[in-house]
Amino acid sequence: MAKVSILNKIYNSGPLILLYYLCISEVDTNLEKVFDIFTLNFQIILIYFWVLKRPELMANGHIFLAGLINDVVMGYPLGISSLSYLIIIFFGTYVRNKSVNTTIASDWFTFLMAMIFSNLLFFSLLNNFSDLTFTFTKIGYNMFFTLFMFPIFWLLFNIYQMTFIGMRDA
Amino acid sequence: MSVSRDDFSIAFRSALLQRGGAQKFSVLSLIFLALIIFFLDVYGVKFTKPVRGIINDVVYRVTFLASTPTRFFPQISKDLSKYFNVKEENERLKIEIEKYKSLELNVEFLSDENKNLQNILETEYFNKNLTNIVLAKVLVDKNSPFLKSIIINKGTRIGILKGMPVTKDNYLVGRVVETNYLSSRVLLLNDLNSRIPVTLDQGAQAILSGSGSNNPILEYLPEDYEILEDINVFASGKDGIFTPGTPIGKTNEDGEVELFVDPNQLSFVTVNFNTKVQENF
Known about the structure:
The complex is a heterodimer. Chain A is an all-alpha fold. Chain A has 6 helices and no strands.
């Protein structure tokens, strides 16, 4: 029984561990080496899905901390990724509060809204308060591929949820 | 109508202020905290620089440890393929050695002649201090779509300053843009923020600008200058930071510069202490 409980805890911590690992390790989801324009913000997909489906597994404080770590590793001004992730949390929580039942299509649409606001804040702050330069084409590709990949990860996370955690939808 | 507005405001307020259960902090309080941290970091209040330095050093070390498995497995497959190709490689290297033996005599003659001519002209031999370099290990090489940089394991403790040039096998790879006590961040030549003065084989001057992709581009070339393929590009040293003549890459058919060192494959680099860099960035 105790073994099952430990396993459950590990499965429940899976999304958070993945988020921390993606932020702190060299592992990245930007496959520019394979396909020149393919860049993807996997962290926001991960946060949005789990905040929408099982917010108790993704504590706000942990997401905030993961954002700070991401800033240090990436060389961005401290706090900027945290802000971007918190906007995603805000949208996720709002949609969760407002909706009774969600589908992949509704989640996909609300994710687009969340991503637009989150990236708008991220790049406005970066543009106005740092010396970093970026091209709008890159941002466009990044947003497109993040949006494009959302349903695929939605399905994968759903399978993970059903297999290891158990369903308890909004 | 009013019910729907109430619903909206309740859901909105709840999303911002909701706490309890696993959520120990509300989104609103964390947004305020993130904004405070952001502005403290951006405006560089006196105490934030050393604090950020310490945080950077700790996080970079943890990142290095966390990334060990991802480095270990590709290395094994690389080693295995090297082992199976050893005979073929041996034959290829033998041919190359023969080629370089014949070139060596020629290079020796030319370098002696160059030194003699510089003595006659009484100009400084710019490579005389080339030994004043320090070897550094690449701790983190995280690929970001917006910032092409690496973290090295040497910092202000051994005297690294912002702006110092970084090379690999004497080929230029970038310059130091952030220094901590035990680590530094190196901006690579292909980053969008990178701009360095260069000289081409035929003597033309230009600015090498990072494009965000693997190959930087040449800007501010002389009017009517046509970029041909296979033209070597060197640092001109006009900025007083990079050693003049440091090889960088060669032009390709698209007019871009193919770097001699693949920026995605760096494991050890050298930081050049020769140039008189002032940390005034």
